Every structure is written in C-alpha cells, then in structure tokens.
Amino acid sequence: MAGHVIAVVGGKGGVGKSIFSANLMIAYAQNFRQKPLLIDADFNSLGDQNIILNLNPQRNLVDATKLQGTIDLKALSGIMGSGSVGFNFISAPRDMNTARDIDVDGYGKLLKASQNLFPWTVVDCGSSMDVLTMKTFEAATVIFVVTTADLIVVNQTKRVLAKIQEMLFPPEMVQVVINRYSQNTLITPQMIQKNLGRSVFAAIPDDPATCDAALSKSTPLVVSAPTSAAARGYHELVRKMQQVGLLESLAKLKKPTGVAAKVQAQGGPEQVKMEIGGAASQNANPLRGGAAPIDAWTAMKLRIHKGLIETMDLKKTNTDTADPKQRAILRDKTQKAILDLLAQEDTASLLPTRDHKAQMVKEVLDEALGLGPLEDLLADDKVNEIMVNSRDQIYIEGGGKNRLSKVTFSSEQQMYNVIERIVMPLGRRVDEKTPYVDARLPDGSRVHVIIPPLALRGPTITIRKFPKRRLEAKDLIQHGSATEEIMDFLRLCVEAKLNIVVSGGTGSGKTTLLNVLSNYIPANERIITVEDSAELQLGQEHVVRLETRPKNIEGEGEVSIRELIKNCLRMKPDRIVVGECRAGEALDMLQAMNTGHSGSLTTLHANNPRECLQRLETLVMMAGLNLPSKAIRETIGSAVNLIIQQTRMSDGSRKITYISEVTGMQGEVISTQDIFLYKEEGFDKSRKVLGRFVPTGFVPKFVEEMEAKGMRISRSLFSPKGPAQAAG
Length: 728
Hints:
Elements: E1 4-10, H1 17-32, E2 37-40, H2 48-53, H3 61-65, H4 73-76, E3 81-83, E4 87-90, H5 96-99, H6 104-117, E5 120-124, H7 131-139, E6 142-147, H8 151-166, E7 174-181, H9 189-196, E8 200-205, H10 208-216, H11 221-224, H12 229-243, H13 246-250, H14 259-266, H15 296-312, H16 324-343, H17 354-369, H18 374-379, E9 385-390, E10 393-398, E11 401-404, H19 412-423, E12 436-440, E13 446-450, E14 460-464, H20 473-478, H21 484-495, E15 500-504, H22 510-518, E16 527-531, E17 543-547, H23 561-568, E18 575-578, H24 585-594, E19 601-605, H25 609-621, H26 629-639, E20 642-648, E21 654-666, E22 669-683, E23 689-695, H27 702-708
Parallel strand pairs: 1-5, 1-6, 2-4, 2-5, 6-7, 7-8, 15-19, 15-20, 16-17, 16-18, 18-19
Antiparallel strand pairs: 3-4, 9-10, 9-14, 10-11, 12-13, 13-14, 20-21, 21-22, 22-23
C-alpha cells in the first residue's frame, strides 16, 4: 500500500512547526514501529531540523532532487541520515547558494518515490506559500497548518489558509493544529475555530521547560521526555489520526495538479515573506522555481519602512486623524524620520539625484500614512475609477475607457495594510469570516474590498472616485449627459416634491445624478440621507447623514438601510434621500412616499424604466410580507412620480436616456409614459456616440399641479417641434 506525505506549514514564523514536524514523525515511529522519513524543505531556516534531531548528513535535499534514474533506498542511503529511534532524515541545504540549485521537478520525483518507500513522509514546509510548498501539497495526503493561541498568529494563519484555498486544494485536506497551547490562555480552541472558520484537529500542550531542555540536548522532546504533557500530545495526535482513519479517507480526495508549475510561471504567489507573516528580505524566495528576488528599490523601501515602524512606533500612532493640522505635523515628523533613516543607507547608486531621493521619501510616506501606490492615482483628476485585480495588476478608468496602470503593490501584505487603513477608521472589518466590505475614503470615494478565499488571485480593491469638486447641473450639460432644458425641468420636479427614482446600471452615473438632484432641494427643508457608504455631497446645511453598520466580530450590531429608513421617519424629515434600494427597504421607501414624505429620492439598478418598476416590485417582495402583486403595484403606482434612466454608452459617456412619468394603474399593469428620450444617431470618426435629446410630445399630468403652485413651465418644452435639443 502506498505511503502518505504529511505536509506541515506554519501559520506564521515562530509557531514551532519545525519542532512539531520532528516530534510528529518520531511519535509515529514509536507508536507503529515503522520507519518514516522527514524532509526539511524549509529554505528560510536552512538547518533547524539538524539541530533538533542532532543529525548532520553530508548531503542534502538539493542532492536528492538531482538523483538520476530510479529513486530507491539504495540511491537515498548516501543522502539520508538515520535516527536511533527508527526514522530517516533528508536535511535542507546549509547555505543559500546551494539552495538555489534545487531541481523542482526532481523534488516532485522524490516525493513520489517516498510514497513507495516509506509509510509516512513528513515534510517541514516552513511558513511560505512558494513553489516547493505547492509541490509538497500536490503530493500530500494531509496538510497540517500549525498555529498558536495568539491573535496575531491566528490572523496570519487565516492568510495561509486563504492561500491554500486559492489554489483549490480540498478544505478537508487542511487540518489545523494548535501548538504550545496552555489552559491558562484567554484564547480557547473554540475561539480559534470560530475565527478561522475551521475545526481544530489537535492541541499540543505548552511545556516550555521540557522543550527548552530537549533543544539544549539536541534530542526530540518525545525521546528526551516521553512522559511530558507535550510528548503525550504528540502520541495522542498520531493515534487519533489512526483511529479516525484520517489519512485513508483523505487519500481518496481529488487534488489539483499543476499548481506548482503555475506558481513557478507566475514567480509567486508570494514574492515577499511578509505576505503570510515571515520576515521580508531582499533575498526572500531566492530559488522557488524561478521567482525573482525583489528589486533593490523595493528592498530599500521595505527597510526604510520597517525602520520607520520601529523608530516612530507607527503601530501605536494614530495615522488616520481627521485634523488637518495634526496630519501635517505627523507628516513632517515622519518625513524627517525617513530622511534620517536614508542617511544611514548607501544611496549613491540607487538614489543618484535629488528627484530620486524625493521619490523614495514620497513612496515611503504614502505607505506609512496613506494608501501606498494608490495615492498618485487618487490624486490624478483624470482617473475616475481604480480597479486592483491583484497586487501587480491595477486598472484605471479615465474618459470612460479602462487601461492598465504601471503602478503595482510590492506585496500582498502592502495591500492588506492599505485595506486596513481604509476600513479601520469606519469601524468596519474584513477577514475570512467577512471577506468583503463596502467603505468610503475621507473624500467620499466609494471603496469595495473582497479578499481570499472569495478572491482567488488575492485581495481585490475597487475605488470609485468622487470628484474633488461637487458636480453641478452645468457639468452634466457640459459633458452631454443632459440639456439645459432637461435639467431645468428636473429642478422644477424636485422643487415640486415629486418622488423620483434614478434607474441605471453599474457605473452609469446614478449616484452622481442623485447628488445633483438632491442639491435642488430648497435649503430651508430638513434632509435626511440614508446610505450604505456615505458618499452624497449635499450643499445644504440642514442635512442629517445616516450610514449603515455591518456586524461586529461577534456577528451582532448590524444596522441595515431598512432600519435606518424606519428611524428617519421619526426624525421629522422634509425629504428622504436613499442612496440605493437593494432589498426590502424598497417597501419602507414607498410607504414613506405615500404617507406625507413626498419629494423623496432614491436609485436602483435597472436597464430601462419598465425594468425599474419590475425590479422595484421584486425588492418589495424581499421585505417578506407576502403582499399580493396587485397591492404592490398599486403602491408603486401611487408612490413614484418620475423615473430617470441613466445609461453608460458604448463610448464610456453617461447620458439620461429616459425621463418617464408613472401615471398609475391600468388594470393589472403600472402605466408609464415617456417624456424625454435620447435618440442615438451613430458614431463620429473617433467612435463617440452621436445623438440628441427629444421630447415625445407627452405633457406630464403633474405639470398642472406644478403650475397651480406658481411654477411656470413652457408647454413648448414637451413639443417634438419645439426648440432643437443639443446633440450628445
């Protein structure tokens, strides 16, 4: 029967996974009287296992990967070391130059051969998700992820688990083990299970005195102190594996293939060890299947940033203060510290000019106090949207067109730092349990973040920038989104307290139009805005802004848009502006429109006015009250007065394509009538959409009510034979 490969990876450097690997292997040998193999594939430590086992074979893993022909016990005999308690050991190389010569394909061949030669092959993979680790995972029956009862370690362990998930290895294959666990710690296995979203397979008791004594004698703990609590923990672990048939059941799982080759081709996925908690260095990941070391510029930047953290204790410094004076003082203080650290560096070759030095200072400042490489994109007025697909692929949108930016992140850890800087001031969180979040930047820009395991290529960040200057109607007219006559008409509709729904697709400009319309509300009226992420920029002073709140770490405390709408009805609003209706809050919004809160504004996703009404009906059903369809339609027909359809055209421009009145019910159907349309008339030489805004000839029913209030509206505005409308 084929043997099993047991991969051991650390959730973070320093969790004791090397000691765990050695003692696990020997506990197996002692319990089942069989001779296992231990492979030290941790090329960051380069020889820790030699100290733990007190073995120093003349040859190492690199030599084993270069064996030609069939790999059998005879071929391995000159490479392996043997322990007195009955095990074999292949050591890691003792220096980095030798490590660079490893043959990755030969390593895979060695693992395959070991399954035919040994009942167990335990592989110490270190704490990095590199090509050797992935090669081990491909051959492994089980992956033990070693963590400790420490919040920082557990947090880093989540990233390791996310990496494994990203590579599509079966979740059952991954087993979590708590090392050095003490009953006196405040963090229980149950808390760790809840945080990681995975059950804990075993906990090895903390026994520091016994462990230190074993290390000082270079004798594994299960050999030097067989009756200690920690030794019993290892024996119970291997027996449990046998009793539950863990390896036999996991051996039947279908595992992905070619993962290591993919990682090798991509040069990752982890170019800097900081990404999963290891120490970052210029030589991190030196061989790992061709992954290149980080460049000298990035290496210097990482050193300066690390020194900055130590010098200023940035982790305890409030870098997100909203006070401009405090931010300026902090920036000056940080800049001085960076210059002091640069003075200790040899900068002659890397920073030959003052401009190079200034650029280095700026990049470190941006990472320490801002959003790192995104700062320049956020400052660029020509960039409307930033789309981070992965750490080395950032797209931007400008002028309605997407293009690849030259800007990249140096590591995924840098991305996580940026994400934390965005969400923390808002009291929000993003982790494996809640792997996505909506947030906003101080300037109102909308941010969406989604991380592994949902995002397979690593953290993904999407930022929809809000203009530094609040857009006004004249800006929409200038960009061809509407005509002056149409915007004047919409201003009158808002002033007349019509209930308006702005409909459109993603990125069509719904929120921008809603913002413009909201600024038409008279300044003496009390306005209450309700949003998922507060981004409306109203110019009036009498405004109350409400924002939803997600669940806290215990899964409690969530406040939804629906609850906020119910609350704002008790706050004597003259106008209610809801950023977007996505679910059951649509019912509460319609009820507010029908019960004395006219003049309300909201947006929702739809492709045309008819679909808007259908979607509104669907959203009301999501309230869960089981209302008859006819009752829902009657509510919509009496509540909504006007639908404005916003569309993103094929050339990237945004235009109002429909303005439609909701005229009530006709039988079982909500009746609508188009007032204005945008008619496309082809393209110019640069493929820009040509067209014009035209009235349909229909005069809205609410015009008479508006005129009764003293508003003057020219009926020629609605005539197809009226003044020619501006071309788009």
